[in-house]
UniProtKB/TrEMBL annotation, chain A:
Keywords noted in UniProt: Oxidoreductase, Pyruvate
Complexes and interactors: Heterotetramer of the KorA, KorB, KorC and KorD subunits. Heterodimer composed of an alpha and a beta subunit.
CDD domains: TPP_PYR_PFOR_IOR-alpha_like
EC number: 1.2.7.11, 1.2.7.3
Span of domain Pyruvate/ketoisovalerate oxidoreductase catalytic: 11-172
Record's catalysed reaction(s): a 2-oxocarboxylate + 2 oxidized [2Fe-2S]-[ferredoxin] + CoA = an acyl-CoA + 2 reduced [2Fe-2S]-[ferredoxin] + CO2 + H(+); 2 oxidized [2Fe-2S]-[ferredoxin] + 2-oxoglutarate + CoA = succinyl-CoA + 2 reduced [2Fe-2S]-[ferredoxin] + CO2 + H(+)
Protein name: 2-oxoglutarate synthase subunit KorA
Organism: Methanosarcina barkeri MS
MF (Gene Ontology): 2-oxobutyrate synthase activity; 2-oxoglutarate synthase activity; pyruvate synthase activity
InterPro entries named among the record's database cross-references: 2-oxoacid/accept_OxRdtase_asu, Pyruvate:ferred/Flavod_OxRd, Pyrv/ketoisovalerate_OxRed_cat, Pyrv_Fd/Flavodoxin_OxRdtase_N, Pyrv_flavodox_OxRed_cen, THDP-binding, Transketo_C/PFOR_II
Origin: domain of life: Archaea
TrEMBL record, chain B:
Protein name as annotated: 2-oxoglutarate oxidoreductase, beta subunit
Pfam families listed in its UniProt record: PFO_beta_C, TPP_enzyme_C
GO molecular function term, any single one: thiamine pyrophosphate binding
Cofactor(s) required, per the database record: [4Fe-4S] cluster; thiamine diphosphate; Mg(2+)
InterPro entries for this protein: 2-oxoacid:Fd_oxidoreductase, OFOB, PFO_beta_C, THDP-binding, TPP_enzyme_TPP-bd
Domain Pyruvate ferredoxin oxidoreductase beta subunit C-terminal: 198-261
Keyword annotations: Iron, Iron-sulfur, Magnesium, Metal-binding, Oxidoreductase, Thiamine pyrophosphate
Species of provenance: Methanosarcina barkeri MS
Chain ranges of the Thiamine pyrophosphate enzyme TPP-binding domain: 53-194
GO biological process: cellular respiration; organic acid metabolic process; sulfur compound biosynthetic process
Amino acid sequence: MEYTLRVGGEAGQGLQTIGGALAQVFSKIGFHVFTHQDYMSRVRGGHNFYQIRFSEKEISASRDMVDILLALDLDTIEIHRKSVRDDGFILYDSEITKKKFEEPEFIDIPFKKIALDVGKKSVMANTVATGAALGILDLGLETFRNVLRKAFEKKGDEVIQGNIACAEAGYNYARKNCPRCEAPEIREPENRRLMLIDGVNAIGMGALMSGCKFYSGYPMTPSTGILNYMASRAEEYNLVVEQVEDEISAINMAIGASFAGVRAMTGTSGGGFALMVEGLSLAGMTETPIVIAEMQRPGPATGLPTRTEQADLLFVLYAAHGEFPRVIFEPGDPKQAFYLTNRAFELAEKYQIPVFIQSDQYLGDTEWTYEKFGLENIIYNDYRLREKDLEGVEVYKRFKYSSTGISLLAVPGEAGKHLVVADSDEHDEEGHIIEDSETRIKMVQKRMLKKLPLIKKEIEPPLLYGDSSPKIVLVGRGSTYGVIKEVVDTISKDHKVAMMHFSQVYPLPERDKFDYIELLENADLTICIENTATGQFAKLMRAETGFEFSHQILRYDGRPFTIENLKEELHAYI
Amino acid sequence: MPTSEDYKGQVPAWCPGCGNFNILSTVEEALVELGIEPREVLMVSGIGQSGKLPHYTKCHTFNGLHGRTLPVATAAKLANHSLHVIAVAGDGDCYGEGGNHFLHAIRRNPNITLLVHDNQIYGLTKGQASPTTAQGTHTKIQPYGVLEEPLNPLALAISQDCSFVARGFAGDPGYLKELMKAAISHKGFSLLDILQPCVTFNKINTFRWYRDRVYKLEEEYDPYNRLKAFERSLEWGDKIPNGIFYKNERETLEEGIPTIQEKPLVRQKFSIEDVKHEIDKFY
Ligand SMILES: Cc1ncc(C[n+]2csc(CCOP(=O)(O)OP(=O)(O)O)c2C)c(N)n1
Ligand code: SF4
């Protein structure tokens, strides 16, 4: 059993409120939920939608076809009518659309009028509509009542009761006036409750639970969600969150806070990251740990501000002058985003390097459901020397040579009599400026050549899903994880097929734990799937391993792959 | 109590006779006289001849990028406000490359001290015009003479209600030290613009040129009067005033952040136990 609902309308009409509430209701009942959003870069007007797919089984992508279309304006009906399945429904309010539809799939519900009659406020039309959608599904209202109570907790009892009454009225109206939906036969999963989380919140929560204490950022879609999250938690968890004048300041602040002894992070999108590049190099030279979230959107320049793409991989990989180690993670779902953010902090601190969480609008905004995340795998090691740690140490040198390339990281002001000196110029072990070639060579070896092989050993192999000795391998990275996985599920009856997904993309994993290159070489068909026009990951694979994919499927219209569209593209090859 | 010896760092590599030497010894003496230990001080600098100053002292040091001194210094202060944070910059560094950060540091008002070595020229890159170079000055890059109006850092800072605005002269280390101590002791963002002769590249603003012109603001001058301060900050030419032009008592950035009132951020121990119920918010 599975259903897909799409709520469409103009920006400012409350799509997020309706969509978010429905997603919460389904997840609290115990269904697996997958939501995604499609919105334009404007605050009011335009056309946006919020899509919710829910199922008894685990799901990880969106479908093109929908079962229920909840139309808040006429545009939505005109644009999405063709996506409604034959036995589906379109809920609308003919007073709002100023047009009446007679076809059997249309159900005209006076959202606005009910809101005014029952709740005395037209804004409650959204609650009426949500109630109506639940009515069509015959799912009961208990959970939705609780969601409403929580959502309007601060606004007081009157608002809560008004909304509940509106929800009931919408629900009942839909049940009475829905001739075709006598028995949807949705079975509620028993005794199950799932958590619901999107990519940006998962990254923010991952940072919080890694001991991140300082976050600096300048708003830029789609990274703003992380900044919002961190700011909303600042008071509760004693964080310092600073909205800065520009991204140059954002990264330099993160570096300053980290140098002074706290875990620090910054986040941005491609254009903002372009400004951060000089600071990235500073982190490399001064060996200051930082985590940077780079949330991609289509470029170049300001591109499509609210859409999705994966085309900053090579930019982030090669950004900054000079040579220094870096790590790039590309989570495939919010759960990976959560744990990889934690891992990013661990590696950044351990090796004193910049580590990237690279993601995109699609994953940032999509909500997924899970069993509650366990915290037993969360790593927290404080690698910094504080207070008593340096007692008895005669001489402290911030950049002391060592066999691993890692030197002790002391906290200024907590290092007793010792001083901590860092420099963006080439420096000696103490951190002071030098220009001689011997020291330069040793420092490059320390910073780069000694650390690199150790860092490489920390990188996990790609995930293989599906057939264990596949003839067809669909390769993806980052946010294409979910859709490739579901496509593998649907075609695995007829083919020996597997997905190979990379979430730790740089450095590429070594081959000793899992020889993924050999597996690829043994397949008949290897297809690299990416949201880029030039196949950046395929290029990286060729450059680093010499392996060349037999085919590529690339999408670069600013939209994510959907199950139907990826399957259709695959028809050309299988 | 610290002594000047405690603050002696590397041997400076500035040109003999450079105004920077006096700034260096003045910083050290000011810190000693204020009884501040080297381990309580974090000096953050950018790039330029000025940027090297922290290396020539002994204290915690972060020598970062050209123009980026203030974001690093501000964040370090937020992470550990028990440190005395001193930002050291050049005129090109701070008013050119870092102009935007300068404006926003004034707005934020962290309790840090900004010392600008204002030699009205680019020293390290060998004599190009800086934002404070006099109009008409000829350099290799400005063959028709500088066309732009020089930037007036004091007037700019006062116009933005900067918490502390002063000017000193490297050729008068006694008075400079007084100003420096006042700047370091001031609660809030304090700007001390220091007239610093560059004996190699700036042939106009020499020690002699300044000596003939600088004078101290009168005893009865009231630094709390912003309009008067603005007026005095416009004086430049035959007579150049030195002293504390303007002061106000504003809440500092750190004071406005509730989460660090009890303890500096850096001393707040982290345990996963403290945050683990966060998961329930999504459940
Ligand atoms: C991003 C960047 N641009 C340019 C430079 C080259 N550069 C180094 S110092 C400097 C100017 C220094 O002038 P100023 O700040 O007035 O300091 P001074 O050397 O006179 O003390 C420049 C342009 C640099 N290091 N980084
Ligand atoms: S170039 Fe000028 S500023 Fe630099 S050290 Fe020489 S005299 Fe001083």
